[in-house]
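Notes from hallway chat w/ T.B., transcribed later so I don't forget. T.B. wanted the structure written out for a chain they're using in a teaching module, and asked if we could keep both sequence and structure tokens in one place. Agreed to drop them here.
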Amino acid sequence: MKKITIAFTLSFIISMAGFGQATYNVALTGIEHVPPVGTPAFGNLEVWFDSDTLYVRGTFTDLVGQYWAGHIHFGEPGKTGNRLFRLKADLNENQREGSFHESENKFALRPAQRQALRNGNLYIVISSHRHQMGEIRGQIPRM
């Protein structure tokens, strides 16, 4: 009985440590790209902001070409903008799907970038060799 109590208490403490930090889902699809891209590819990422740092983790799959790059851009919903940060992906064997880990995808934001994040003006794009300007995109929600 004591082991269960200790495990529950430890789990509660760990979950409370991240209580003030909200995690947001970002769905990546071709329809969100500007202009839209017809692709079976999609991604599901989690983003959060803590102590002036933006973190990204998640997966993507079914790119029509091999992975080219992933970036965080500045831009309003439905508009294109400049690249701010390059994401580091771990790719599978065929290089058409992969994952992002927060330990390799954390970015210190300057004041103007923090303001863009608060306004919902940052988005994520994943590009493939067939769609080097971007195959799937997702807007990071206001934080």
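Follow-up for T.B.: Helices lie at 2-17, 111-118. Might be a good example for the class.
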